[in-house]
Amino acid sequence: MRFSSLSELIRLCEEEGLSIAQVMIAEQARESGQSVEAIREQMAGYYRVMKEAVNRGLRDNPRSRSGLTGGDAKRVREYAAGREPSVGGEAATAMAYALAVSEVNASMGRIIATPTAGSCGIIPGVFVSSQERFGWEDERLVDGLFAAGAIGYVIANNSFVSGAEGGCQAEVGSAIGMAAGALVELRGGTPEQAIHAVGLALKNSLGLICDPVAGLVEIPCIVRNGFGAVTALAAADMALAGVRSAIPSDEVIGVMLEVGSAMPDKHRETAKGGLAQTPTGRKIMKELYGQGTRHEEKEPDGQGDEA
Ligand code: SF4
């Protein structure tokens, strides 16, 4: 890639008069040796999986294998249909869709890891709800996924995108940043505004620990995806309104690395701290596994089928 930081990405966009998505598509085609059509088609396939996960989550109301979670997407959907949600109807829809995809993941269904399975609901929640709201064609959302991918690429190469390495700030936080930046571009904002949205969003999740109850990507992961979708909408709106990240977004990514590196092991997906070790968290773990923890037998931040 010809960029390794968000500032370099903006510079490329400005010098070449391209959007973030266009830069990413060109770079990916060059690096992979594939045609633009081929990589777009692959990304379109990922977007179809995302939409199907939203639909499946709402339609089938899946419960997780552990029996701990499921049904929250439907609850939010029904609540939003019957009453005026405090966050507004559109944000409630994004929230319900994000919960739906996360519930599909918890039920071992097919999702796209964006950037991980634990944070798989945020981008579909924001994208699918925005598509319905603004009447966008799939092709436009495919561009959005490339923009999100460029942002995720920079974060992954300068900090972390997994809870086991850098806490939930790295997973849910990164997904919020990716969704926010991409949404700014989808709504006609400049690359600079999109990058400010990333910094604004990431700042709001710095320090968020990874503490999944019983080592399962369910509690608190699913609701964090719901919150994440709403935060991404808010960050995009702030950036589109002209709010800037006073600390440059690349520096915020550096802080995420610093904070994640200093995080104790117990707050990095081991289920040895945080919510996982509350009296209720321990009780749930004991009911599921006896005295042991499932952590020893699980893959980092897995769950459903990733694509
Ligand atoms: S709490 Fe941990 S496992 Fe759950 S979404 Fe956050 S980073 Fe992933």
UniProtKB/TrEMBL annotation:
GO molecular-function terms, A-Z: 4 iron, 4 sulfur cluster binding; L-serine ammonia-lyase activity; metal ion binding
Keyword Disulfide bond annotated: no
GO biological-process terms attached to the record: gluconeogenesis
Annotated spans, Disordered: 288-307
Pfam short name (any one): SDH_alpha
Keyword terms, alphabetized: 4Fe-4S, Gluconeogenesis, Iron, Iron-sulfur, Lyase, Metal-binding
Domain Serine dehydratase-like alpha subunit span(s) in chain numbering: 15-276
Cofactor: [4Fe-4S] cluster
E.C. code: 4.3.1.17
Organism domain of life: Bacteria
Chemical reaction(s) catalysed: L-serine = pyruvate + NH4(+)
Keyword Iron recorded: yes
InterPro entries, sorted: Fe-S_L-Ser (IPR051318), MmgE/PrpD_sf (IPR036148), Ser_deHydtase-like_asu (IPR005130), Ser_deHydtase_asu (IPR004642)
Pathway assigned in UniProt: Carbohydrate biosynthesis; gluconeogenesis
UniProt xrefs under PANTHER family: L-SERINE DEHYDRATASE (PTHR30182), L-SERINE DEHYDRATASE 1 (PTHR30182:SF1)
Family: Belongs to the iron-sulfur dependent L-serine dehydratase family.
Protein name: L-serine dehydratase
Gene behind this protein: sdaAA
